[in-house]
Amino acid sequence: MACWISVDRISVDSNDPNAVLQYFSIERKDYIIQQISQGYINDTYALLFDGFPCYILQRLNAQVFSNIDVLMQNIHCALPYLNDKNYHQISLIRTIDDKPYLKINKSDCWRMFTMVPDSVAFNTTQDGVIAVEAGKIIGKFHSLLQEAPLDIFKDTISGFHDLTFRAKQFEEALGSATPDKLKEAEEAILFVKMTLEELRFYDPGNLPLRICHNDTKLNNILFDKEDNRALCLIDLDTVMLGYFHYDFGDAVRTIVNTESEDEKDLSKITFNKELFEAFIDGLSKNSDFLTKAEIQHLPFGVKLMPFIHGIRALTDYLKGNVYYKVTYETQNLDRCLSLFAFTKKAAEHMDYMQEVIIKKF
Ligand code: GN1
Ligand code: MG
Question: Topology of domain 128-360, per CATH?
């Protein structure tokens, strides 16, 4: 249902992307608005004029992001650094009253970015060039942000990739789940318990904290439509401090597994060695910033990240799909099963990854 409220004495339908456009400092034109269905959290729209995409408009999920000021502040701080001859800078479009986003009320927040022209994103790939390019751009993102002071970045979601925190949420979900769901997810629950036991002694120790993207899945990288050069990373909502192996693991899990995150046929889940080596090749071109200890931790990230995402999906399934947008009731369960299938593949390839990494770095 549309909810009419007032912004600066003007009424706006806070659910309607068309209605919020007038509050952004862009040329007034008859844009066509197309919803982009990807993404589990925000609502995203592309603004097209004359068939060309010009802007990205997003309604932020205020339930997931409880402090949108902090989130936007992190992005605002990161963007000036993310600019280089080999990194396409994206810009935030300010509102007509010169704010970084449109806050209608606490739960209705919209923001707009420039669209990267002639760019494309891929959910999965079989192409070694894409894997090389993905490695390069993730390395570039980190080298550029190395210049930014750490203390200006605040957590947008605390404990985001913290295994102990995710395990606690999982335990709570077990306590409140229906017997049906517990039965349906029996195998996945066992896998979590076993793997948590195995990772009990995981300790990032004195690895350096870096400004991470924290969601470096393949489809958050834009490539040039013509020559497949990687241009930049998008979806900067979780730019905050973390360990490099988070970004490494998220990229690898979505590149070397050539199937989607909710693939039901687990026999299709891959660990494609050519793609892994290509990714490492690309990353090694922009990896001077990495310490020895970080390099040693890279394979661990490939096991950790799909496992953490799997626990989060399973927790959400047990809680009744309250966090992620789902298109069917058991989607979160399918996601966790496929993520766990990849976690197992990663575990089988730990020595192999270490060997490739030692050779290339
Ligand atoms: C969520 O909405 P999207 O797809 O950008 C999630 C990520 C996961 C991703 C897919 C804030 O991101 O952590 O990698 O789904 N983002 C948040 O698993 O929870
Ligand atoms: Mg995201």
Answer: Aminoglycoside 3'-phosphotransferase; Chain: A, domain 2 (3.90.1200)
